[in-house]
Amino acid sequence: MKVLISGASVAGPALAYWLHRHGFEVTVVERAPALRDSGYAVDFRGAAFDVLDGMGILEEVRGHETMMRGTDLVDDEGHKIGELPAEAFAGDLEVPKRELTAILHRLTAGRVRYVFGDSISRIAQDDSGARVEFERGEPGVFDLVVGADGVYSTVRRLAFGPHERFVRHLGMSGVGFTTANHLALDHRGVLQSAQGRAVYLFSAADADRMTVSMSFGTDSAELDLMERDRQEEIVRERMAGAGWVVPRLVEDMASASDFLFSSACQVEADRWSQGRVVLVGDAGYCAAPTSGMGTWQALIGAHTLARHLAASAGDHAAAFLAYEEELRPYVVENQKHGREAVAMFGG
User: Which residues belong to any copy of the FAD-binding domain (predicted)?
Assistant: First the structure.
C-alpha cells in the first residue's frame, strides 16, 4: 500500500517509521526546502516513552535533555516573587525540537522517500485511490494521504474544508526567537506575567543564547498568516510600556533569523478522516502549545494510526475509525489542559 504523508516535523516522520516497519511504501512531502532547524523545546510524558523506546531512539533522545532546573516568577521590574519546578514546563523529559526532528529524519531517511520544497495542491479520490497534484512535482496516485502538516494543514483544507471551520483561537498570540543570553540564565527560565501579556525566557543547550517568548491577548488567529513586518508591528504595539528587559528583547526581535509568530489555537474536527485522507498530530487535533502535550500527542497518534492500519488487512476505513475511537478521549483531555493553561501566558 502506497501512502503519502504531508509534513516532516514530528508526526509525519514518526508515522513514516511505523508504516514502513509494517510494510507500507511511504513518501513524505514537506513544503520547507530542508529539514526545519527551529522550534521550542518539546517534552515527553507517559506513553510517549514507550513509542520512543519502540523506535529504538529513547536513549538518543535522552542524550539531548535540556536539564532545566526550574523557572523564576518575576514582577514588572524583574524581581523574583516565586518559582515553578522544572516539571511545570519540561515534563518528564525535555529536548530541543530541532534535535528530535533531526533524529526522526535520520531514522527514516533511508527507509522512506522524502521530497522537500514541495506541497500538495489538489487531492481527487475515488474507489481506486487518491490522485494527488503538487505545486512543483509530477502528480501521483496513492492509496492513502495523511495530513501531518500542522494547524494550518494543507491536506485538511483540501479534503475537509477551510481553516476557519476547524481552528479555534484561544485568545492569545505571541512571538518566539533566540537572542544573546542577556540574563546569564543557566538551565533556568524566567516568567513575567501581568496586564494581559507574558514574557518567558530560558537558556539550556547553548549557554550563550536564550529563547524568548513574548505573548499577549488577541482576538484572531489570522495574525499567524500575516507578513513578518506586520507581526513585528503588532508585537511592538502590545509590548509597549513594558519594563524590565522587554524593550531590549523587542529590539532583538527585528534581527532574529528564527523569528516565529504563532497563536494559541486548537484544532477541533468532528472526524479525522475523509475517504482515503486522514489527519494526525496538530493537523487533526492540536491541543495548543500551552498544553505542553503537542509532541507526545503527535507521537502517540502516529503510532496508534499505524498500528490500526497494519491490523486492518487493507480496510483503511475501519482502521481510521478505530484510530479515532481509541485516541479521541485522550485528545479531549489534552485540549482541556491547553485551554486552562492559556491564562498563565497572558491570554
Answer: 2-330
Lowest mean pLDDT among 14-28, 109-123, 127-141, 292-306: 292-306
Q: Give the max Cα distance, the chain.
A: 65
State the pLDDT at residue 8. Answer: 97
Residue 142 belongs to a domain: yes
Cβ-contact 152, 163 below 8 angstroms: yes
- Full-model pTM: 0.91
What is the distance between the alpha carbons of residues 270 and 151, in angstroms, rounded to a whole number?
15
In this structure, is residue 45 part of a structural domain? no
CA distance 294 to 285: 9
The domain containing residue 301 runs over which residues? 2-37+96-166+265-345
Out of 24-28, 264-268, 284-288, 291-295, least confident range: 291-295
Grid coordinates belonging to 20: 514502513
**13 class by beta-carbon count within 10 Å (0-12 exposed, 13-18 middle, 19+ buried):** buried
- Domain count along the chain: 1
Q: CA nearest 146: which of 6, 298, 304, 328?
A: 6
Burial class (CB in 10 A: 0-12, 13-18, 19+), 121: middle
pLDDT at position 29 is 98
